Amino acid sequence: MKKICVLGVTGSIGTQTVDVVKNHGDEFEIVAMSAGHNIQVLEDIMTQITVQHICVQDKHDKLYLEGKYPHIHFYDGVDGLIQIATLKDVDIVLNAIVGFAGLLPTMKAIQAHKDIALANKETLVVAGHLIIPLIKEYHVNLLPVDSEHSAIFQSLNGEHHQDISKIILTASGGSFRDKTRAELENVTIEQALKHPNWSMGAKITIDSATLFNKGLEVMEAKWLFGVDYDNIEVLIHPESIIHSMVEYQDTSVIAQLGTPDMRLPIQYAFTYPRRFPLIGGKKLSLSEIGTLHFYKPDFERFKALELAYKAGRLGGSMPCVLNGANEQANSLFLNQKIKFLDIERLVEEAMNAHEWIDNPSLEQLIEIDEWARQYVLNRVGED
User: pTM to 2 decimals?
Assistant: First the structure.
């Protein structure tokens, strides 16, 4: 029985993780989980599975839950996340927290010798230079949960790293993949949140529309698979059937295909190196689909992707700036404070204003993240 801690259980990845665990109750058990502010969804999950250790973001919610469920251990805040992620009973921590907030619990879980199923791409984007050495030092597994990185991980099985020619990350193109840059000037939040293929949370869906999400995945791939940015290619693939590919030096290309279903990479992170039936999963029929399409992204049209490559190549503190500024700008757009194209403009301005640091410590990263967010707020008069 593999015992799991789910950080971010009320989000899209978290709720699908609950589904996976319920479908394989003889193999997996969630022994700890965390939620942000969505207490209603958390309480619904608590009716589906019995979990003894639960962390929430605010102390007020903790006090409410303690009064209602006296038999459960409740925690709150960042300290609470660290407590549940490092519990003795936990075998693997699935980190589905969105954003920079997922970094510290991941680091502490690694140091507690827990395997990591990573859906929080920001952990590696911001601090890959700290995380990868920790993974090696504590001899734990780092298992990707993003569909693209899981596909690459699967396509590398049994192969030699030195034989890799390049990694090909596929991208749906998001809600606005067929719009020109001029047409993006006045798009609405409602339009941005209508992703054509995937069901995701609001922040990630907006990131998908700007292509910042794909840019973060490029940076994550660099750390996960130890490849240079020159050897990471992005292809727009509207059907989202090929989840990513690896090209080898003999010109072979190995890919992982499947219908869009995030439960598959979640489950594979738990079952690796085995494969279990995906209960309720839809099998792929290429004859029904008929045709798959691919095209290179236009970096002038998808400015966010260009910024991500630039930040990744600069390394050091710059990915942290890009991530923090994007998180803040994304939130401002969702709160109707800025326009859609202002997101990438603000991120670029923050990058240009930042004084680059070569090898930032954890403490410096925390300060840089706060600086980037405040810079964006100041630029739009929200300070």
Answer: 0.92
